[in-house]
Amino acid sequence: MKARIWIIAALLVGGFVAGTTYKRWSPAARLATGIDSPIWSGPSVARGAGLSVDENNNIEVYKQAHDATVNITSTVYRQNWFLEIYPSKESGSGFFIDKTGRILTNNHVVSGRAPEVQVTLSNGEKYKATVVYKDPVNDLALLKVQPRREAKYLPLGDSEHLQVGQKVLAIGNPFGLDGTLTTGIVSSLGRDIADESGRKLEGMIQTDAAINPGNSGGPLLDSNGNVIGINTAIYGPGGNIGIGFAMPINRAKTMIESYQSNKPYGRPRLGVDVIYVYGDLATELGLPEEGGLLVQQVAQGSAAAQVGLRGARDLVVIGNYQIGVGGDLIMALDGAKVDRIDSLSRVLARKHPGDKVELTLYRGGRKVKMTVTLGEASQDL
C-alpha cells in the first residue's frame, strides 16, 4: 500500500515538472510573466537616428572645409652644444584661399630661418611649400604650393561684425589627428594675449571650440562655412581647457591685399594700452555714462605720444579691479562711436602705417577731436 502511494506521488510530481518544462506559452503570456522581458527599453523596430538642424549644419560645413584644410610640417636645421646639426620640426594646420594653391597659416608654424615646409592634403598628397609672405606681428604667413589639380578653397568671411555667442567651428590637425572638427561659440572679442616670445597679439577672438597643439593655422568658421579667424593660441600649456584664441580674418585680408598690390606691408600702431569702461563704472570714475576706451599707458615715441595723448596719472580700486584714471577717454574713432572693447583693433585692421585716424576724446570735462598719423608696429621675428 505504501509502495503504491509513493509511485502515485512520484507520477504526480513528474507530471507537474514535465508540464512546467514543456508547456507552450503564448507570446502575450510570456511577456506577462516576464520571461521574454527585454534587457533594455527602446522602439520595437530599429531606425536610423534623425539629425537635427544644427547637426546637419555641422556636417555640411565639415564637408565643405575638410578638403580645403591641410597639415603643415616645417623643418628647421639647428645646431646643438656639440655643434651637431639636427632637424627641429613644427607642425600645424592651414587652408587654401584660392584654387592656385595659396595657403594661410600662422607664422609660428613656419618660423625659423629657411624652413623646409611640407603640406599634406586631406587625400594624402604631399607638396613642398614656399613661404611667400609673413606678418610676424599678427602671427600670419602665406604659403604657396603647386597642386596637380585645382585646389578646393575656403571663402574668407568678415570678422568685423562678429557677436559673442554666435556659433563657430574649428578644423585642423590636433596632435597630428588630421581632419578634426570641433564646435563652440565666440566667447569674447578683442582679447589681447602674449605669444610664446612675449609679443602682444591684439584683438583676438576667444572661443570655447576645442583648440589643441596642431590646430594652429587652421580655419575658424562661421555656420555658413566662411573663415572668420585663424586658430592661433590656447590658454596655458598643454591641451584645450575651453579657452582658445583666433586671429581675426580681416587682418589676413589686409596682408593679402598688400601682397597682391606689391605694397610694403606693416601693422599700424597707435601706441596706447586701453580698457573699455561704460555705464555705472564710467559714472563711478567721473566719466560720461556712454563710456569708451580709457587710456592707461602711452608708449614713448609712439604716434599717440607725438600728438600728446594722455595716460593714467593715478590708480583706483573698484571692486576687484585696479584702474588707471586721469587719462584720456577715447569715445569715437573716425566718427564711429566706441561701443565695444575691440573698437580700436577693428579700426586699425583697416589701415596702414601712415594713415590717419580721427579720435574724439573726453578730456578735462569736455570733448575734443584730434587727428593722429599712425606709426608702424615692429616686425621683429
From TrEMBL:
Signal peptide positions (record): none
The reply to whether Repressor figures as a keyword in the UniProt entry is no
Q: Name one GO biological process term.
A: proteolysis
Keywords assigned by UniProt?
Hydrolase, Protease
One MF annotation (Gene Ontology) recorded for this entry: serine-type endopeptidase activity
Name the domain of life. Bacteria
Q: Where is the PDZ domain?
A: 269-374
InterPro entries in the record: Chloro_Bact_Ser_Proteases, PDZ, PDZ_sf, Peptidase_S1_PA, Peptidase_S1C
Q: Name one Pfam family in it.
A: PDZ_2
Q: This protein is called what?
A: Trypsin-like peptidase domain-containing protein
Provide the taxonomic classification: Bacteria, Pseudomonadati, Acidobacteriota, Terriglobia, Bryobacterales
